[in-house]
């Protein structure tokens, strides 16, 4: 059964240690949390260990195994031999990955040496280099050399958290847009109210001017009538 491309952790079945990239450019055994007198420790010296691997299927049905953090590929020496350490390199390197008789458990190996050489551990100590082993012949060795490839659940949780953060950011942006739209509507309503107030003031002013003009006309008309009465009698 082939492996789907994705982000994985690679864990040794017997010792239950993870494969991680060390600062020396090798692949070593690592535990999720190593407690010491000075706190938590990881082989690469960073806060987050480099045990996440991107496994990709190549066109020739082989696989590349690339560290997520460092972008280095897991590789073997140019002329691989038994007990040589797995190293890391910047250039693409290919591996065979095959499921064993136990479902969900796989072996990682190379046949560049004309014989299958498998990823394996000589012991269960932390930071022990993962090295090439010849094909196991016993059940104990078989378990020791089988790597369980598990989908990186923590990575999935991190991705989900990132999605939630992105969604939160989108909601914040949408909220900001709504607030801006509300502000625009409020400003528009205030401008409209101001226009109404100004129009009402102009109307009152025009009404007052019209009334004053009308009263002036009445006054002038009354004066004219009075004038005519006076001078009409004299005639």
Automatic annotation (TrEMBL):
<protein>
    <submittedName>
        <fullName>Uncharacterized protein</fullName>
    </submittedName>
</protein>
<feature type="coiled-coil region">
    <location>
        <begin position="154"/>
        <end position="209"/>
    </location>
</feature>
<keyword id="KW-0175">Coiled coil</keyword>
């Amino acid at each position: 059964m082939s492996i789907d491309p994705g982000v994985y952790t690679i864990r040794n079945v017997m010792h239950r240690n993870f494969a991680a990239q060390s600062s020396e450019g090798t692949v070593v055994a690592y535990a999720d949390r190593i407690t010491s007198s000075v706190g938590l420790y990881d082989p690469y010296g960073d806060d987050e260990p480099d045990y996440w691997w991107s496994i990709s299927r190549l066109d020739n049905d082989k696989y590349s195994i690339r560290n997520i953090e460092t972008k280095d590929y897991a590789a073997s020496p140019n002329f691989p031999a038994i007990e040589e350490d797995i190293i890391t390199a910047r250039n693409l390197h290919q591996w065979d990955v095959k499921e064993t008789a136990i479902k969900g458990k796989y072996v990682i190996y190379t046949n560049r040496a004309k014989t299958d050489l498998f990823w394996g551990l000589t012991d269960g100590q932390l930071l022990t280099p993962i090295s090439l082993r010849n094909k196991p012949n016993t059940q104990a060795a078989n378990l020791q050399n089988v790597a369980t490839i598990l989908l990186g659940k923590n990575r999935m949780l991190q991705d989900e958290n990132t999605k939630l953060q992105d969604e939160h950011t989108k909601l914040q942006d949408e909220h900001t847009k709504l607030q801006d739209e509300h502000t625009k509507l409020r400003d528009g309503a205030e401008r409209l109210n101001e226009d109404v107030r100004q129009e009402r003031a102009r109307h009152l002013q025009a009404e007052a001017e019209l009334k004053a003009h009308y009263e002036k006309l009445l006054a002038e008309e009354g004066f004219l009538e009075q004038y005519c009465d006076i001078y009409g009698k004299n005639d």
